TrEMBL record:
Keywords: DNA-binding, Transcription, Transcription regulation
Gene Ontology molecular function, alphabetical: DNA binding; DNA-binding transcription factor activity
Location of the HTH crp-type domain: 144-217
Name of the protein this chain belongs to: Crp/Fnr family transcriptional regulator
Acetylation among keywords: no
Amino acid sequence: MSLFGQDRSFLHALPAADRRSLLAEGARRVYEPGEVMIRERDTSAYVLALLSGWSVVSVGTERGSRLILALRGAGEVVGDLAAVDRGPRSASVTALGTVEAVAVSGDRFRRFLAARPHATALIMRQLATRLRSADVERRALASETVLQRLAARLVELAERAGRRADGGTVLDLPLPQHDLAAAIGATREAVAKALRLLREQDVVRTANRTVVVIDMRVLVLLAQGRARPGGNPAGESPPGV
């Protein structure tokens, strides 16, 4: 399961001239932390090309909570599905920090794609990647424990948005516990319990909206279901048991 898009984003995969042409079609916007950039079920069709910052893609649930589907950063486009199929927004996009973007109308974005088959192919590949990721996510929700899903998320965040520092890898994305819970389909209480277990085993260290991965090897094994809490390989008992 993955919160991130492809290694090479849509904007970065475009030839430089096409990238400039697309950005020239829109207007620059700056979103403040927590500001809703796109709202689920809205009928707008503009596309946002992200220039800097991180945003959170999420959907509401029947219980009134939300499920985080993805994190989108510089070089990616959001809102493209509604622009392509002209249907209601399938998810909300919210600025995680300050986000700078270029807003392109749905009509202009469709004309841009129609004139550039390679850009259309990139968008189709992006949509297919997101669909496959959603399928993997559904399997994980059905078959993996909260601890395993949390470990997988922390590994991914460390690999894609981590910063090496003394004593470990600092996750630079300021995701509070309720967002971590929304990112793995669990309750905040369950995530707090799992984080406490990881802290007790010296796998991670936490502070206010900050997670530092101390033992990446054990975290990876937990994410793969090949270790139990305490860093023991699956199938082995903890020392003294």
